[in-house]
Amino acid sequence: MTIFELLKDENPFADYVDVKSAILADRPTLPTADDVPAELWFLVDLAVKCCKKRPTDRISDDEISEWISAGPRTVKVPTLQSPRLLAFGAMLFGQDKFTSCKQKAFAGDADAQVRLGEMYHFGRNVEQDYKQAVQWYWESALQGNANAQYNLGLMYQTGLGVDRDYKEAVQWFRKSALQGNANGQFHIGLVYEKGLGVEQDHSQAVEWYRKSALQGNANGQCSLGFMYRNGLGVKQDHKHAADWFRKSALQGNANGQFYLGFMYERGLAVKQDHKQAVEWYRKSALQGDPNGQFSLGFMYEHGLGVEKDSKLAEQWFRKSALQGHAGAQFHLRRTAGSD
């Protein structure tokens, strides 16, 4: 089957190997562009370019734009930017990347092993397989790779691909954290805060959260702010709390955005400002945070920092309730009972 026959098929992405083989085999003797639709010709050209890229390269948006600019004049740009065309190129490139990574992983490259584990973990360029992810994280972690150690700890903590084991998770988080991995530091702080696999110790939690936060980790910053706000393992200090929440929020962390909104709503270490509170609650809510959604609903219900709107309030309460937020669920039951 030629490349043109494959691409004319209703599902031209089904067999990557056949498509790539056809591209490489047909390229020297491809018919002229006049013999095929311009869109199809350009699709072949893009596929060939993707096949020729080194697997370690990333195809940038600028490169795609360049290729589009050099495409057939008879093809409109929106057609060239269609999901079908770009998905095809990405699929070819992604499969090359997976194959190359797998070869390096089998050769013992620790970085490739953790990348391969992540591909299986998140289903990138390959079917999702948690057990395979764990296997490759193990291979890399045993070589001392801090990212793999963190990822392996996460699999044990969540029970993905292995039986859940908090103590085993702690061991791997600690190995990663001791190498300076900010995610590992955050998670070792989390297990100390919650007492998961270790004896609960808020002072230890603060120490590890601080290490993570100082490296710019948004989760670590938010959690350190939480400890300051509540006086857990450290003297209560709303100013420090607000500072860390802001650092986290500005990085797009949904929890940090919620807590910063809370500080503005209550006027804790910042001047009370309901409009600012609404702004941060909205950012958090739009990322799906149930606390942000509930709080935004509350602001709409009472007209704080925003025009009162009972319908919008109910919408946000409902979104929050569907995620298990007890306050939102109680509010909706109470509202339903009063009707």
What's this entry about, in short?
With 339 residues, the chain is mostly helical. Helices cover 70% and strands 0% of the residues.
- What level of helicity do the residues show? 55-70%
Strand count, sense and barrel status of the largest sheet are: none
Overall 3D geometry?
globular
Q: Report how far the terminal alpha carbons are from each other.
A: 67 Å
What can you tell me about this protein's structure?
The chain has 339 residues and is mainly α. It has helices at residues 3-8, 16-26, 38-52, 61-69, 77-80, 83-106, 110-122, 130-141, 146-158, 166-178, 182-194, 202-214, 218-230, 238-250, 254-266, 274-286, 290-302, 310-322, 326-338. Helix 14 packs across helix 15 (254-266). The chain is globular, with a radius of gyration of 26 Å. Residues 1-20, 26-37, 51-59 and 71-87 have low confidence and may be disordered.
Record the SSE blueprint.
Elements: H1 3-8, H2 16-26, H3 38-52, H4 61-69, H5 77-80, H6 83-106, H7 110-122, H8 130-141, H9 146-158, H10 166-178, H11 182-194, H12 202-214, H13 218-230, H14 238-250, H15 254-266, H16 274-286, H17 290-302, H18 310-322, H19 326-338
Helix pairs in contact: 3-6, 6-7, 7-8, 8-9, 9-10, 10-11, 11-12, 12-13, 13-14, 14-15, 15-16, 16-17, 17-18, 18-19
List keywords for this structure.
globular; single chain; 19 helices; mainly alpha; disordered N terminus; 339 residues; 70% helix
